[in-house]
Amino acid sequence: MDNTITDLLFKHVSVRSFTNEVLPDEVVKKLVTVAQAASTASFQQSYSIIDVVDENLREKVTQASRNQRFMNQGGRLFIFCADLNRNNQMAKDLGLDVTQTIEGLDATLAGTIDATLAAQNMVIAAESMGLGVCFIGGVRDNIEEVSELLNIPDHVFPVYGLVIGHPKDKLNDIKPRLPFEAVYHKNQYADKIDIVRSYNIKTNEYYNKRYGKKTDRNWARTAVNSLIKLPRSFMKSYLNSHNLSKH
Predict the structure, then answer these.
(1) Is 90 exceeded by the pLDDT of residue 185?
(2) Distance (Å, rounded) from C-alpha 158 to C-alpha 143?
(3) Domain boundary among 154, 172, 190
(4) CA pair distance 74, 77, nearest whole angstrom
(5) Could you tell me the superkingdom of the organism this chain comes from (predicted)?
């Protein structure tokens, strides 16, 4: 059965080259309100979205995020934050103390999940409008600097950025995902590493075609290299300093 929504989802690719065309405010409002329609843990809505519109500020955030230049091209740069501060303020208004809860690991996870669900809603809405998107985990590389630039208070932290704009260049081919059998488990977790190993052959073929030459790159090398290069071992101390994930 044809389904335009699933067709759209299957066509997703990250875009890292945008035109200088700025997204109008009415489009931004539509994207944010669609993001707000996402599921949220216990209706807490523990996230905030920062639209970085000041040019100088956007440049500083870009430089602090591995200086990925496409972040400062056209369109918009949104920073999705896990936000427990709002809930804390509401509790204080009610004369209640929820610090023991919001400063725990589970609340940090809930806020991160809420932000992620909202971000994915925004991505789907943007792509349905013909826009391109790219998540920016690099905002956590210098998270202290980014937090200072964005005036991030206690009980809040930037999870990632999201660039949305009009694609400038031809889109890359869709990357082959892990086989269904590799991610789908029935009743209990099963060891499926052999399936994953065979997948490396397929992804190597993808990269050979993308680069137009023979390469040893595959999914395993790409994933493992990112883990080696980006341990971000400072995240625990950062979260603790913002009174998050303390227990």
Answers:
(1) yes
(2) 8
(3) 172
(4) 9
(5) Bacteria
Q: Is 204 in the same domain as 88?
A: no
Question: Over 90: is that where the pLDDT of 73 sits?
Answer: no
Among 132, 149, 172, residue at a domain's last position: 172
Shared domain for 148 and 194, answered yes or no, is: no
pLDDT at 223 over 80: yes
Residues 24 and 131 in one domain: yes
Q: What is the predicted pLDDT for the residue at 230?
A: 78
Tokens for 150, please give them.
């964005």
Per the prediction, the chain carries an average pLDDT of 95
From the number of C-beta atoms within 10 Å of its C-beta (0-12, 13-18, 19+), residue 193 rates as exposed
Q: Which two tokens stand for residue 202?
A: 């397929």
Same domain assignment for residues 125 and 215: no
Burial class (CB in 10 A: 0-12, 13-18, 19+), 191: exposed
Instruction: Say how many domains are in the chain.
Output: 2
What pLDDT is stored for residue 2 in this prediction? 62
